[in-house]
Every structure is written in structure tokens, then in C-alpha cells.
Design goal:
The chain is of the alpha/beta class. It has a single domain (4-183), classed as Hexapeptide repeat proteins (UDP N-Acetylglucosamine Acyltransferase, domain 1), CATH 2.160.10.10. It is 21% helix and 31% strand. It is built from 4 helices and 20 strands. It has helices at 4-9, 19-36, 43-53, 118-121; strands at residues 14-15, 56-57, 61-63, 67-69, 75-77, 81-83, 87-90, 95-97, 102-103, 108-110, 112-113, 125-128, 131-133, 138-139, 144-145, 150-151, 156-157, 162-163, 171-175, 178-183. Helix 2 (19-36) packs antiparallel against helix 3 (43-53). The radius of gyration is 16 Å and the shape is globular.
Length: 186
Amino acid sequence: MSTEREKMLVGQPYHINDPELVEIRYQTRELVDEFNNTGPRDKDLKEALQRKIFGSVGDNVHIEKAIRIDYGINTTIGSNVFINFNFVLLDCAPVTIGNNVFIAPNVQIYTARHPIDPIERNKHIGSASPVNIGNDVWIGGNCVILPGVSIGDGCTIGAGSVVTKSIPANSVAVGSPCAVIKATKS
């Protein structure tokens, strides 16, 4: 029999308030609070906390505070990544952020899904779908990336976009819902 955590990670319905999941979220929030209270010059502590918060972190990763994260351990971050202020990450399913990625302020990445039917939703059963962000991607400020989305290598996502569907590599995409407006030269 699968645990609620195992079900969550593979996209099956799971009980959101399972004690193991609640405990992981509490542990992550304690680390995130410590990160958010760390001074900007204390780079060694910030790096150590990033490595505790996330499942995997590459080299030369800079994350501005404040951040809000559900689990952290379900997220892989590549090298040469910059994440600006007020980043929100609901990583109930795996999240992959590639190399050479710029994430502007107020970006939110959601993997969590909830039932549309209120009776079902009130049972606190959820599901989740992974999010993948390729290499050499720039995500503009105030973007929201929804569950199940993949953003291909070399993409630029315009500020304020709501990314509801996957974006092919080497695209410039904007809007709500986000749509490709042109290809990049790469």
C-alpha cells in the first residue's frame, strides 16, 4: 500500500493533511523562516539553508528573500540560477528548474491541484502534477505557473503571465492564459 506522500509524488489523489506531510511542511517552513531571517551578507548560511530546503541545488544559485515553500525536497534547482524576491513554490509534485534560469519577483509555481466540486474539495483530498522549467529560461515578474506545465529550453515568459499549458523550447510567451507570440533566435 502506498503512503500519502508516495501518492502525492506520482499524481494520485492523496490526503493533504496526512501527518507525515504536515510534519514535512512544518520542517520546511522552519528552514524557510530561518532563510528569510538571514542577512544578505551571510552567503554561507544562505547556501547551507538552500541545500537543506531543496532536494538538490546546483552551483551559483542566488535566492532573494522572502520565499514561501511547501516541501522544498521535491524540487531540483540547476546551476547559475537567480530567484528574485517573493518566490512561492507549492511543490507537492516534483519541480525541476534547469541551469541558467532567471526568475523575477513575485513568481509563483504551483503543482497542487484541488477538486472543483466543493464537496470533494472539503474532504481535503488533492493531487499534484510536476512542473519543469528548462535551461536558459527567463520568467518575468508576477507570473504564475500552474500544475503540469513544462517550459522548454531558451524560453522567455512575459511579466504577468499565467502559464496554464506547456511552452515549447525557444519561445517568447505572454498573457493570461500564456501563449507563444514568437520564437527566439536560438
